[in-house]
Amino acid sequence: MRSRRYVWPFFVLVLIACGAVVPSVFAQGSASEVEDLKKQMLQMEEQLRLLRQKVEQLEAKPPTPEAPPSSEKTDAATEQRLKALEAQVQQQRAASRGILAPFNPKISLNGLFSAAMFSKKDNLNFGDHDPNVQGFKLQNGELHLQGTVDPYFQMDSNIVLTIDKGDTKVELEELYGTSLALPANLQVVAGQFFTRFGRQNPQHPHQWDFADQPVILNRIFGPDGLRGSWLAPTPFFLEFKASAQQAQGDIATSFLSSKDQTVRGYTLIDRPVQKIGDLIYMPRVVTSFEPTDELTAAMGASTLFGPNASGPNNRTIIYGADLYVKWKPVNHSQGFPFVAWQTEFLFRDYDAGPSTTPVIPASRLKDYGLYSQLTYGFVYRWVAGFRVDYANSSGGAPAVPFISGLAQQDLVGERWRLSPNLTFYPSEFSKFRLQYNVDFAASRGREAVHGVFLQMELNIGEHGAHTF
Predict the structure, then answer these.
(1) E-strand spans in 308-414?
(2) Which residues are CB-neighbours of 86 under 8 A, at least 6 positions away?
(3) Which of 71, 181, 251, 291 shows its CA 20 to 30 Å from the CA of 136?
(4) Strand ranges, E, within 76-211
């Protein structure tokens, strides 16, 4: 589930100003300590230079039989002192980095661009970061900051920029802290971040193996939260996660969402969070194992449950299961060749209505579907992929006549999509992708809707490795 709240562009200016002010305040508060370290490092480096010069002079002298036997001891003592000074210099450098590190976060900027053409004016790409317009689009501009707060916490932030019909929008997509020193392998993450439901939803657009989001995720997910995870002491990897999240706003489309929005014909009421049971809760379990030296598998199961605003006491529950398998030979070269298979199944049970405007009796809305994708790194830097999407729905027959607009109708009924693609990575900081989609939706009479995308990603700055 993804946040869709927009922050005014001046937020970026405030952030930049804070980035300039905080280091200066820190510098004033501990200037003497930093200056002392610099002086010590300069003195040590000067001593190191003189000792190296002395060693070079001794090595340059021709051996003389008349040399006193004590010269070997002198050379050995000089070498020992040289090594000791080098170690001290390294320690001082590490100490200075440790003092300044919290005020020098890792910063990276990612740009994801696309050009798209569709066979129909009303295409079937509905994700905010999908290539969903004819022509060019900035799918995602992402500024990522990460830094250590202290020995106990790390902080991450992702600020996203998009352009919609010429208007630039700034979105605080993620801002959260992660604990670093809790006992018993416990870790807590607090703030706003993508819900850790399944494999695809927590990923950022530049991490996707395809240019657009799977169909079933577009139907179900639309958050703020608290997540706890525990690494269980078992012979194989087993991780338990649990979260409690905000249920209101556009970021929670399957739950309380926003007043007057519609879900398959049912108009949502204003239902505020009033008690602890009005939050969204998620348990998740993940395990991974290696059947052979060349094969790795990871499996997960997730559940989301909470209130929805189609009635004063209505509830929603979502189930999910995911599987990831990767083959990579032992004698691989820089990660190639490889074959990776990823698949997810989702099911939503939505207790809807009754609705008074318009008058619609209560019903159980069920939405379900899956995607399955295969990627093949056939030669260094080249990856071919193929994905199959399927989504369908049942229930809610009394509300069907009240589903207005083609976009709402496209979110109901059977839907298939086939997507082959080819990706080239000039380096770890850039990629080019060509993808073709063909969609068949019951809402369009199962007429084929074609789409072709050319995508480019550019990245500057330090960025962490992607999760397995």
Answers:
(1) 315-327, 338-352, 355-356, 359-360, 363-379, 382-394
(2) 48
(3) 251
(4) 106-118, 135-150, 153-164, 167-179, 186-192
Q: What does the pLDDT read at residue 416? A: 98
Asked whether the beta carbons of 301 and 321 are under 8 A apart, the reply is yes
In whole angstroms, give the CA distance from residue 468 to residue 465: 9
CA distance 372 to 344: 7
Residue 407's nearest CA partner among 435, 437, 441, 436 is 441
Tokens of 376: 């093949």
pLDDT at 7 (0 to 100):
40
The pTM is what? 0.77
pLDDT averaged over 10-residue windows placed end to end, the chain, 468 residues: 42 42 43 62 71 66 51 63 69 54 79 96 90 93 93 93 88 91 88 89 92 92 56 71 86 87 90 92 94 96 95 96 97 93 98 89 96 97 98 92 86 96 96 98 95 97 63
Strand-pairing partners, residue 346, are 320, 369
Whole-Å CA distances, 413 to 219, 319, 376: 11, 19, 32
Tell how far CA 211 is from the center of its chain. 15
394 φ, ψ (degrees, to nearest 5): -150, 165
| 3-class DSSP assignment, residue 37 | helix
Q: Give the DSSP per-residue string, 197-250.
A: -TTTTTS-GGG-SSSS--HHHHHH---EEEEEEEE--SSSEEEEEEEEE--BST
